[in-house]
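Notebook B, p. 112. Complex prediction, attempt 2.
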Amino acid sequence: MDAENLLLSLELASGSGQGLSPDRRASLLTSLLLVKRDYRYDRVLFWGRILGLVADYYIAQGLSEDQLAPRKTLYSLNCVEWSLLPPATEEMMAQTSVVKGRFMGDPSHEYEHTELQKINEGGKVFEEEVVVQIKEETRLVSIIDQIDKAVAIIPRGALFKTPFGPIHVNRTFEGLSLSEAKKLSSYFHFREPVQLKNKTLLEKADLDPSLDFMDSLEHDIPKGSWSIQMERGNALVVLRSLLWPGLTFFHAPRTKNYGYIYVGTGEKNIDLPFML
Amino acid sequence: MGDPPPDPEPPSQPPSSRRSSQVSQRRGLELSRPQPAFPEEAEQIPLDTSILQSNRGILASQANLQGWSLGASPTQQENLPMFQAEEAQLGGVEYPSPNMGFPSELQPQLYLEEGGIQATQNAGLMLQQLQRGQSNLFQQLESAYLETQPDLLGQFNMYQRDDRQFSQHGPYLRDEPTLQFSPSEPGFTPFTLEVPEPEPLELAVQNAKAYLLQTSVSCSLSLYEHLVNLLTKILNQRPEDPLSILESLNRTTQWEWFHPKLDTLRDDPEMQPTYEMADRQKALFLRSGGGEGQQEMEEEVAETAVPNVMETAFYLEQAGVGLSSDESFRIFTALKQLVGQQPIHTCRFWGKILGLSRSYLVAEVSFREGEEEEGEEAAEEMMEGGEGVDAPDEEEGEEDEEKDTDIIPKPMWKPPPVIPREESRSGTNKYLYFVCNEPGRPWTRLPHVTPVQIVQARKIKKFFTGFLDAPVVSYPPFPGNEANYLRAQIARISAATHISPLGFYQFGEEEGDEEEEGGAGRDSYEENPDFEGIPVLELVDSMANWVHHAQHILPQGRCTWVNPLQKTEEEEELGEEEEKADEGMEGVEQEVGPPLLTPLSEDAEIMHMSPWTTRLSCSLCPQYSVAVVRSNLWPGAYAYASGKKFENIYIGWGHKYSPENFNPPLPAPVQQEYPNSPEILEMSDPTVEEEQALKAAQEQTLAAAEEEEEDEEEDEEEDLDD
């Protein structure tokens, strides 16, 4: 959610039950402003909160002019001091895929994972058990990246693409209408499109190239991994991800308010196919 | 159209001499033409915005009228003379300050001078085109026009035209077939002298207007009309700094065109459900009865079963948990409505369970004494009705069996004995639960939970859809629909996560020993009047300061153990066969769980992780904080305590946390077939050879028998003969 409308957004996203306490809210308002100034971001988003056993991580993201450029992620333990996280790499993802369980809450905590590695020593090849240390910070980076790529969404029309390339916030976005808001096809993944080029020509003909340049949620696998609900007596549409439980997206139809927040344990719900 | 027709001004003296001198002047300057001359002139002459504006105004009005006539007149021939005549009038009528050698004014003069040359030329041209039947006037003009369009608007925007090379030939003349010679030379062409300048301008204007009037493919709005609307709107409203809001004005104007304000009498169809919901919720806020006397106030101020939801919400908000405050207030009014409808003794907001299409708000209530039996009786009748139907079926089946000569062997499998559910107000059914989807909707009562439902609920993991009568499709099959599954999950969550500070509750007067048969400890508690609260820091530090005040559910599915083998009176009548079968099942051990009011420190760990996490709500002001406990086993279960107050709440999806993946149980092994007994003997079918051998053997014996008979007959005959 945008740091500028933090209070309203938190209020609208509170239907999932998790929010922020007043002291955190107050400190966020101040510290995010300073982050924007110091790092010279165009927009700062409050991404959410990952619950750890000992402490919680508060995550924020900074965007530059081009909205689809890779975002910079920052984390904080007390909502006042923010530290920049390194960008995610493939290696990190592979390394942290073996770590399971909850986050500890201590960024320097190291997970130990034993694995068999083949070691060449003087012509002999034998396997040895090696204990690999994985830092929690690395795990944090890769989980945030996975969640972003999988379930960060925005409504259709909120961003538009100019012929020169960069993607801007659409200042004339007036919100989705009520009938559009209930369809999954009106929401896009907030990332570089992956499936767009696989569309048939017929489908592409109907697209508006300035607005439809990202993947929509319609073809997400598994089907049914999004729950759409109307809350507050039809005045608010809330999408909750079932694949990463804790991600809530809200939008008040016919207004400009929208945003998403993740408050959860940072674990993927692999049992989803059994639960539907 | 927005523009009013220009007022005819009294023609001032045509300063013909001046104009002609200007014409020659211009001709001398450069070979002229209409449009690009404008910017040049604008450069030369000190820019006077009023002049420019008046220019534009005139151009626009001319264009207006011309286009008007253009649209109106069917044929070309009439067209040209007509607007040329009008031009003459206009030319005479409107001219700005004599400063600007406005070409269009010169038109009539030049035109008159040149005679009908250009007119006939143009007319001939167009007639040709028509005869060819190719394009209509507009398209022709438009094609000539396309490149020059920026020229027309050039005076409206800041961009300078870069290429002056075309300025010689006029933007519109380039494509005209008759004037195609030497378009590239910057020198003048003989025709430009003869072609009157205002003609191209006029054409240009007409082209421009025609192009602007073109309607878009997807709608019937043309750019011209849209610009007219936009400018009218701006002129009417006169906003400050219109340039900066131009884009949004543009969008708004477009939107308004396509979404005209509906009839004030008819409602917007899309918003219908929203308004309905709002109406329903409005009813919540009205006081029941309507009377506002003091008596009602006093009654209400007295003890009411409705819980102080707002206070709980406030404390939980400090912990970062809970719904927003207006939602909490609506829940409060909904609970108040529930209390008014049902005979409720105590009521509590249990929490919210999220579902796929809708969510559930759950209220935990207990009825007043004696009130609850109606619901129970109805439920029991339904169950008995079911059993009654089953019994006659069995009897009929038995009768049929006796009639058949082949008695179908009875299956050896016996369903495990049904464990009776717990009585109301005890164990898992201690409280009644009401659910609703949204405040304002009616509350529905959930049925009591049976042990088998809890046992099965432990084996499956399904999302709730939000509809109480939805079936729960799973393996192992869940006995019931979503309402039962919901109730079972609520029971499990309550048993696992309802906690209170140590000392808040205490056991009642001691009654008997704890070692009574079948008793797993006391199952009732009461509030401790002497409770003085535990300091928040201590609550956060140690888990021993919190205790469970809900009974643990045994693996059997109940809180108090029941031996499933105990026969009731009905079962004894069924004969002795079952007793023998039961012998195999004897020796079921009594299941024991942790007693009531055990501290949390005794809870089992999940994979080296404590099942509870404690926090202070605010680290910056510990003296005023609230102690918050979060369950790691049931994500979404929270409890807070501060001073003498505490509360539990659950907001989540309703599932347990498990570090391993969910593995559904495998299907049961295939049942054994009937064992071989003398009644049932399996044999393989005889093969073809065997059958043939048998047949041959039979024939042989038959033949042998016949021979013997014949022999005997012969013998008899012989005997007779003898």
